[in-house]
Structures are given as structure tokens and as C-alpha cells.
Design a protein that fits this description.
alpha/beta, Rossmann fold, 7-stranded parallel β-sheet, two-stranded antiparallel ribbon
Length: about 400
């Protein structure tokens, strides 16, 4: 059959002299029936969704409706749909009138993805608050007025808002509901450098938000526990301060009360857990591996040689065991991307390492291994972290030098 041409739809205003016909009346009746069918259940938001959630994605929503305020840690596996699950809760609370404003805190590279997901699937139009957009949004505001008071729904860069100057304003004017994506980067870790780290600034921000007992807070991460007990318990304390005193080992009948309390706030499923859920099958794509050989062009071979030389320099210059471990995984990820494709190499050359926010060697190894060896099975757009590069957090002069060098190769 030939393709039908795409034309803009235009609906005339109602004419009282034209009563219509059977076909148009039936279309109107069907539209009303479909709308009522979606809004007649226990959820008020379903008539406004542009998607049909899978049954397992309703579990966090059902958990949230039992909590006041909503304090959830959504730690489902990559590709299960954590973004959809968190946004479902937000859409439902907005339609119930329990909240009127929403903020999503996420890494800057995920901000546009969040904006598109909220707009296209949940009918939530949110403004991006990034270093490149904040000044424009602040123009025209009254003296002393915050952009978070002017715009009810915002998507905010964690790295932008965590600074001391911005953090206090955000804490003062923050919406009553907050979703924190990649929440594991906001966990607090021990150590002598913890008080000055980027991660500590993020933790200060999120813990300040959680200090308001009436604020709804949803933490989203695929890696809630990376081997650091202190970091994991710091996330749990954001849900409930009492969770921080729970024992590390919750097995046994003596800890059943702790498990039940935590289960009301914490959901974590692997793909195998929900592949068959409530008589509904979820066909996750299977990874197929195949080895092929190919020839490098002279220019690409030259780029690879330069990056190999750069990798040797970076690893040899690193001082301290943890810093050297971070550098090691960073350059491995960079070399992996270079061997994949020019597009992957270009992306990696302008992003920073996923292991930068780690504190211990074990944590750096866990995240680096997952990224480099494809242990995330990432067939969706919900990668645990962005592709890893080697923009290491060394001294400021060195960091700027590395950036210039990598970006010059990207061109």
C-alpha cells in the first residue's frame, strides 16, 4: 500500500446548526470511553499518560501511595525503567493535588533526556536549569525572586546546584517533590578527604532536602551498594534517619522488623525477577556477541597511537593507589571506546570518568569493571553512567591541560 501523506490536523469550532453524523459521534463516544476507562481506577494520572506502564512498573507507585511523605529508593536494574517508575509517582501526586511543584536532580548529561521523557510520556513540561540556561531563566525575575519559585517544574544539574552559592537558594525555594537520579553519587563516604570532595557537596545538598520532613523524595540508582557500607547507609538515612542505625547484616529472624521497615521504602529488581511478572512477559533484548576484524584508516591509527601514548603518561603520573586505580579504569574505558567506533571515541573524549566520584579502590574497581566489561547489559538508553573518559580530577592546571588535549583530538 502507498504511504499516506502527513498533513496538519485542524478542527473547526462547533456549529449548532450541524448535528454531525454517526461516524463523528461514534469517534467522540469512543474517545470519552477510553478516557474514562483510564481515569476510573485507583490512579488519577493514567488518562494523562502517553505510555502504558508494565505491571512491574506499578510496584513503586503502589509503594509510594502508602507513604506520607513519599521516601523511596528505586534501585532496579538497568533497562527496567527507573525513569518511568519515578515519573509515574510524580505524575500521580501532581494529579492528586498532593504536590504542585517538581524538581529532578540529575547529572547534566542526562538533563535533556529527563526533559524529553517527562514531556512526551507524562505531560510534564519542565525547564532545564543548567549553567548555560540559568542566566536566561533568571532574567525578568523580580528582586529576590528565585527561578525555582517562578518555574514549577525544573530539571537541575547536580553539579550546578551543589555549590555553596546555589545550594542555599535551592534549599530555601525547593519544590515539595524531588527526584534524584544517579543517587549513588550523592552518598557520603568516610575518609580524610570526604569533607572536601565533590560527593560530599552533593550529599550536603540532598541531605538538606531530606531534612524537611514534609518533602517527597525519590532516589533513583542502579547501584545503591558498591561495597561501601557507609555510603549505602548514608543513602538509607536520606529515606529515614533511623535506617542509619540498622545492622549491616539484615539476615535472620531477629532482623525481620528491620527488613519489613526497609522494604516499604526500597525496591530493587533484576531482569530475571520481572521477566515473567503477574502473567505478563517482558521480552528484554538478548546480547549477541560476535568478533570481527577491520582495518584502521591512517588517521584513526594515528589517533589510536596518540591516545595509547597519553594513557601511558596518565597512569605513570598518577600518585596514590586510589588515584592511580581511577586513572587506570579511565584510560581502559577510553581505549575501549576508541576500539569501538569514531563516534564512541568522540563521545568519550568529551566526558569524564565514571570512577571519579569513588572513594575506595573497591568502589572504583566495581564501577570501572561494570563499565569497561559491559556488565550492565545496557541495551537501553538508561546507562548507569556516561561513557568514561580520562578528564581526571587532578590539580586544576593538569585537568585543564588534559581537557585541551582530549578535545583537540576529538576534532
Amino acid at each position: 500500500m502507498p504511504l499516506e501523506p502527513v498533513r496538519p490536523a485542524r478542527f473547526e469550532l462547533p456549529d449548532p446548526q450541524r448535528l454531525g453524523d454517526f461516524r463523528s459521534s461514534r469517534l467522540l463516544r469512543d474517545a470519552l470511553r477510553l478516557g474514562f476507562r483510564s481515569s476510573a481506577g485507583p490512579f488519577r494520572s493514567f488518562a494523562r499518560l502517553a505510555i502504558e506502564p508494565r505491571p512491574y512498573q506499578l510496584v513503586p507507585l503502589l509503594m509510594a501511595l502508602r507513604l506520607d511523605p513519599v521516601r523511596l529508593l528505586v534501585a532496579d536494574d538497568v533497562g527496567i525503567g527507573k525513569t518511568v517508575e519515578a515519573a509515574l509517582v510524580a505524575r500521580e501526586l501532581l494529579d492528586r493535588g498532593e504536590v504542585h511543584r517538581l524538581a529532578v536532580l540529575c547529572p547534566p548529561q542526562l538533563a535533556e533526556q529527563w526533559q524529553q521523557e517527562l514531556r512526551d510520556k507524562f505531560n510534564i513540561n519542565a525547564e532545564l536549569v543548567l549553567p548555560a540556561t540559568a542566566t536566561k531563566l533568571e532574567r525578568g525575575l523580580a528582586l529576590g525572586q528565585s527561578l525555582f519559585e517562578e518555574y514549577p517544574h525544573v530539571i537541575v544539574s547536580l553539579d550546578f546546584i551543589k555549590s555553596d552559592r546555589r545550594r542555599e537558594e535551592f534549599l530555601r525555594t525547593c519544590p515539595e517533590m524531588v527526584i534524584v537520579d544517579e543517587a549513588h553519587t550523592c552518598a557520603q563516604s568516610g575518609g580524610p578527604q570526604a569533607g572536601r570532595s565533590v560527593r560530599h557537596q552533593r550529599h550536603q545538598l540532598v541531605s538538606g532536602l531530606a531534612a524537611n520532613p514534609d518533602r517527597h523524595l525519590i532516589l533513583v540508582t542502579a547501584t545503591p551498594h558498591s561495597g561501601n557500607e557507609e555510603a549505602f547507609h548514608s543513602l538509607l538515612r536520606l529515606l529515614n534517619p533511623d535506617f542509619g542505625s540498622m545492622p549491616a547484616d539484615l539476615t535472620g529472624s531477629a532482623n525481620e522488623t528491620h527488613r519489613r521497615r526497609l522494604a516499604a521504602h526500597f525496591v530493587q529488581r533484576r531482569r530475571a525477577d520481572i521477566r515473567h511478572f503477574l502473567k505478563s512477559d517482558t521480552p528484554f533484548p538478548e546480547r549477541e556477541e560476535k568478533e570481527l576484524t577491520y582495518l584502521l584508516t591512517p588517521k584513526y591509527r594515528q589517533l589510536l597511537d596518540r591516545v595509547l601514548e597519553y594513557a601511558r603518561e596518565v597512569v605513570s603520573e598518577a600518585d596514590g593507589s586510589h588515584h592511580q586505580r581511577v586513572q587506570w579504569w579511565s584510560v581502559l574505558a577510553l581505549l575501549r571506546a576508541l576500539a569501538s567506533s569514531p563516534a564512541a571515541a568522540a563521545t568519550t573524549l568529551r566526558t569524564r570518568a565514571v570512577t571519579l566520584d569513588t572513594v575506595t579502590n573497591e568502589e572504583a574497581d566495581a564501577i570501572g569493571r561494570r563499565t569497561v566489561f559491559d556488565m550492565t547489559e545496557d541495551e537501553s538508553s538508561e546507562a548507569i553512567d556516561v561513557p568514561a573518559g580520562t578528564d581526571a580530577e587532578t590539580e586544576e592546571d593538569d585537568r585543564a591541560r588534559h581537557r585541551r588535549r582530549l578535545r583537540r583530538w576529538r576534532g
